[in-house]
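ok so dumb question maybe but i'm new to this and my supervisor (M.) told me to 'just get the structure for GntR family transcriptional regulator' and walked off. so i did the thing. is this what she meant?? sequence i used:
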Amino acid sequence: MSEPISAVAIGDGIKNRIHRGAYAPGQRLIEVDLAEEFAVGRGRIREVFKTLVGEGYLEFVRNRGVYVRRFTRAEILEMGRVREVLEGLSARLAAEKELDQTQRDLLRAHQTRLDEAEASNDVDRYNAENFDYHATICRIAGNRHVEQSLARVRLPLYRLQLPRSFSSDSMASSNRDHQVITSSILAGKPDAAEAAMRAHVHAGNQHVIRLAEEHFR
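this is what came out, is it supposed to look like this??
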C-alpha cells in the first residue's frame, strides 16, 4: 500500500497551480475537494492551508474559507522595491561566478527562448520563460538567503507581470533588458549585471503602477 502524499508535496502542487495561473487571485480553495483529489484526510489539507497562509500564498477569511491571496497595489510596490535590491544582488553574484559550460548553456538557452517568444509576440510563453530565467540566475548566484527572500517577494507578480494588455513594445523593452543582463553575466561583469537587473526590475515596478485597479485587491 502506497504512502499518503505528504503535506509538503500537496503544498508544492498548490503553489505550482498558483504560479501557472490555474488558481486565480481571489479564488476560493475547497478543503473537501482537495482532500478527495489528493486522497488524504481533511486535516492534512488544513495543515497545508495553514502553511500556505503563513507563506503568503493563501489568505483565510473568517466564516468564508481560504482563498488565493490578492495583493494591494501598495503591497506589490513595496515588495517590488525589495526585489530591485535582491534581484540586482542575484545578478551580481552570478556574474562574479566562474560559470561552467552547463550554466552558460542554460543561460543562453533561456535567452534564446525569450527572444523567440518576443519575436512571435507570445505573452504566455514569454511570461513563463521570464520567471524561469530569473530563477536560474538566482540558482547560479548560489545564495540561499537571497533565493528564499526572492521567492516571497516575487509571489504576487506571477500573474501580474505581463497581463493580456501587455504590448509588443513593452515586451521588446523587457527583453532588451534581459539581453544586457545575460551578456553581462556571461562576460563576468558584476557592476553591469547588477545595474541592468535593478533597472529592469524598476521598470517592472513602473508597469505595476500603470496597471488597472482590477488587478489588485
